[in-house]
Amino acid sequence: MTKKHYKFLIIRLSSIGDILLTTPFIRQIKIAYPDSEIHFLIKKEFLDLIKCNPYLDKIIYYDSETGKTGLRDIALELKGYHYSHVFDLHNNFRSKYVCHKLSGSRMYSIHKDKIKRALLVFFKINRYDKIVTIPERYLNVGSALNIKDDFEGLEIFWDSQTDQNIDNLIKEHSISSKIIIIGPGAGHFTKRWPIEYFKELVHGLTENNSFTTIVLGSLDEHEEFNCLLINNNVFNFAGRLSLLESAALIKRSKCVVSNDSGLMHLATAVKVPVIAIFGSTVKELGFFPYRSENYVFENLELKCRPCSHLGKNKCPKGHFKCMLSIKPESVYKKVMQFAG
């Protein structure tokens, strides 16, 4: 198979942030091999994130509800495409199963540095010589094919109908002032700045009549976030917008205040300033805001960070100082610097 006829498969099944962090890799493969065919395997619920990506020729999605049978059927389908190269950017049980079924393709997998990560998380021994971000680790997977960093950061694409939907939403709610996006959600408790602190921040923003505050998140979080609706200049759209609509709305904002979550990566993908609040996770893990204007709040004095690379459902020490020490007034001042 000649270079121009290479057929690539990229595997990254989840989640929002991890998939957005693959976009420099996707872009650089197409730039290096413009005549190649690039396919992407993803979970169905995250399809929005890449469905309009112009560098992809085909997207295959896996429906988690189909279980092992569905994964087997997907692997059989993929085998029929006869890929020249497969890039496993997930490297978990499901992705390894698929790769095992695609014998004959050249296989490349991300190295997760599990030993270094475990030393840092469990023993607080830092063996990271330098911080390598997740997008850079993805790019390293393709280094043998001369896939290089273009330093352009993340990206996400959407259609004109998505823009129209957001324009209609803004008109429907008579939003005319500067938009500040708030993202109080995250996958685990130790990655969530207290909702009471977010409420104090929203109070400060509403006292400044030049701002409209919009809360984003998942449908499961919608009811919890209703406590932030302190006046008519605050809107709770958690669970009401698609991922692409959320991205299009963020693009129209002045800045985003978010925990370490997918929303933070959406903000960096659309190049909107992000104020990120990090609790139990740290820069060495590779997930800080990537190549977009940002400011990260974190408590560098604590010796117990990180307590997990994913987050925990409660603070192992019982004090939760990593989040409680970050005060709303400090975050408010940073919002004013970015959007005031």
Total count of strands: 11
Major sheet strand order: 8-7-6-9-10-11
Assembly classification: single chain
Share of helix among residues?
Answer: 25-40%
Give the CATH architecture of the largest domain.
Answer: 3-Layer(aba) Sandwich
Q: Which class best fits the helix and strand makeup?
A: alpha/beta
Number of domains: 2
Radius of gyration: 21 Å
Q: What's the total helix number?
A: 13
What fraction strand?
A: 15-25%
> For the report, how would you describe the main beta sheet?
6 strands, parallel
Distance between the termini: 56 Å
Q: CATH superfamily membership of the largest domain, which one?
A: Glycogen Phosphorylase B
Low-confidence stretches: none
What is the approximate shape? Answer: globular
Task: State the gist of this model.
With 340 residues, the chain is α/β, with parallel strands linked by helices.
What does this structure look like?
This protein has two domains: 3-145, Glycogen Phosphorylase B (Rossmann fold); 160-339, Rossmann fold (3-Layer(aba) Sandwich), CATH 3.40.50. Strand 7, helix 9 (222-225) and strand 8 (234-236) form a beta-alpha-beta unit. With 340 residues, it is of the alpha/beta class. The mean pLDDT is 97. The longest helix has 13 residues, at 67-79. Helix 3 (67-79) runs parallel beside helix 4 and helix 7 packs across helix 10. The chain has 13 helices and eleven strands.
Primary descriptors:
340 residues; 6-stranded parallel β-sheet; Rossmann fold; 5-stranded parallel β-sheet; alpha/beta; 2 domains; 13 helices
